[in-house]
Amino acid sequence: MTEDALRTAVRELMPRAKTDLTELVSYRSVYDARQFPVEECLKAAQWVADAFAAEGLTDVGLHETPDGSNAVIARYPAPPGAPTVMLYCHYDVQPPLGDDAWKTPVWELTEKDGRWYGRGSADCKGNIVTHLTALRALRKVVGDKYPVGLTLVAEGSEEQGTGGLERFVPDNVELLRSDTLLICDCGNFAVGVPTFTQTLRGNVNVLVTIETLEGPMHSGMFGGPAPDALAALIHVLASLRDAEGNTTVDGLPNDQKWDGVQYPPEQFRADANILDGVDIVGGGTVSDMVWARPALTVLGMDVPPVVGSSAAIQPRARARLNLRIPPGVEPQDALKALTAHLESHTPWHAKVTIETEATGSPFRAATDGPARKAMAAAFAASYGREATTEGQGGSIPLCNVFADIYPNAEIMLMGVEEPKCLIHAPNESVDPSEIEHMALAEALFLASYAK
Ligand SMILES: [Zn+2]
């Protein structure tokens, strides 16, 4: 039957997947001309374009996005009545972040203890190779004609946060139109555990400035009755967490529960590099705290540094705040609540100014559509176990753009980037079994979703 044939085909294609990934990793495709030549990105883009053209995709081309990078886009027209599936990935990578910290050559795919090391081996070139392997297996088993329409999108500046593709999508709605979007820039909860990344938190960034005096005043002569701007700021910031460490913004719920996979505290402790003896904070489970509830972080403060500080009361102090918000909370509501909280907790009628830096919406994937059902079945068949769900504490603004523009499309976040991959860090690697299982799941999905 097709399932066994696809399984065999994917397995036989794994040596080719390794060869392909070796070539892809050799391109130093960091989209930052100050660090790496632009040609490296262009070579990687051209490689991706050629590879998908070779698998029968049409209208293959490099499309310049508003930030100057190139997205590789290719299509396969849907057979009559069949849906169209977007295969998303990105070919740009993070810089090495210290060549010295790498135990293998950064740009040379190197096998060690069963994993393949190199920058981009997982994020996201491993997902490019997964797409290719799935398509090749389908061609081998089902024939030259794909059962669904395809839209390949390989972004060229995802790691830079310059929003090139986000700004490109609204002007190219028809070019990219798809019924289901596979956003393959995520990963399983652990190797061998098929996982949908179900939610992403949004964020609200503000600058809060407190002013109390015309200028700095001697802390001996005036300390006591003089209103200290830094003390006022400390007072305000302290009101944003309770003793347990829960984020406490007035009017913002902070007791949500995560209903998918539970993040074991020991694993979180290790992943987050928490010092021995120091607590994990908050009243919920780790999954509740990191995926389902708001979290406020003070990103920076303008206060006198210790060296060079004098015996003076500060007239002015400033902090940059980052509030992560879970699905179910609108950024505008969170901003309003945070602003009101900061104003009402500022003591002594000190002057407080709040400036909004940025806001981003949280994201929640739909779970009840036909594509999701087909993918859950494909995951189960490929991995031999049912899929679970996790969240992601950070944001992928592109998902919100897609959700706004294609409101009826099913969006699924998945991929080969499980935690051991150490994406964005030195010594990034991928587990080839994840490429194999994900490619099989994708092939099974494309075969079954057509019906
Ligand atoms: Zn990525």
Brief rundown of the structure:
The protein has twelve helices and 18 strands. It has helices at residues 2-26, 38-54, 125-142, 164-168, 173-176, 229-238, 265-271, 286-292, 331-345, 370-383, 397-405, 432-449, and strands at residues 58-64, 70-76, 84-90, 110-112, 115-117, 149-155, 180-184, 195-200, 202-211, 217-218, 295-302, 312-313, 316-325, 351-360, 363-364, 388-392, 410-414, 429-430.
Largest sheet: 6 strands, mixed
Strand order of the largest sheet: 1-2-6-3-7-17
**Sheet/helix structural class:** alpha+beta
What is the terminal-to-terminal distance? 16 Å
Hetero groups: zinc ion
Radius of gyration: 25 Å
Strand residue content: 15-25%
Helix content: 25-40%
Return the average pLDDT rounded to an integer: 96
The tally of strands reads: 18
Given the C-alpha coordinates, what overall shape results?
elongated
Order of helices and strands: HHEEEEEHEHHEEEEHHHEEEHEEHEHEEH
| Unreliable segments of 5+ consecutive residues | none
Oligomeric form of this entry? Answer: single chain
Helix segment tally: 12
